[in-house]
Design goal:
Layout lengths: L3 E5 L4 H13 L4 E8 L15 H27 L3 E7 L2 H11 L4 E5 L5 H7 L2 H8 L4 E4 L1
Parallel strand pairs: 1-2, 1-4, 2-3, 4-5
Helix pairs in contact: 1-2, 3-5
């Protein structure tokens, strides 16, 4: 029976490693790549009080998401694998878990940024939060 595998991507080398792993290990399953646009990334990059600043940032983020999917498809073509894509807006770890639950995925395969020590404590880890919150298996690729 075919599994439904969710692969969150963000363009990082760790995300690329997770995609490669998913393409190798789950080539015969249904893969969906998810990119989460984090509104907190807008931060100071939008001009406060400038009309359209937020909209311009969001349009740029959507364009970046599409570019990530295009790059991923080039990688998947080498394996002869096709996948679905989705872009969501929200806090990444929460959005990944909610998306997986709402769409009936069997497993999540994602990269780890490999932070340790104080940076992990201060910044948190999306992968760690997903592992803690997810009701389905999560494979973290390092």
């Amino acid at each position: 029976m075919t599994k439904q595998i969710l692969v969150p991507i963000d363009g990082s080398p760790q995300s690329d490693d997770a995609l490669d792993y998913a393409l190798e290990e789950f080539a015969d399953d249904d893969l969906t790549l998810l990119h989460v646009i984090d509104p907190s990334d807008a931060g100071y990059s939008t001009s406060v009080g400038m009309p359209g600043g937020s909209e311009e940032w969001y349009e740029g983020a959507k364009d970046e998401s599409e570019a990530l999917f295009e790059d991923a498809q080039a990688e998947a073509d080498e394996y002869g694998v096709e996948f679905d894509t989705a872009t969501e807006v929200g806090q990444p770890s929460r959005t990944i878990v909610e998306y997986a639950e709402e769409h009936g995925f069997d497993q999540i395969v994602m990269g780890s940024h490999g932070r340790s020590g104080m940076s992990r404590i201060l910044l948190g880890s999306v992968a760690e939060k997903v592992v803690r919150r997810s009701p389905i298996p999560v494979t973290v690729v390092r």
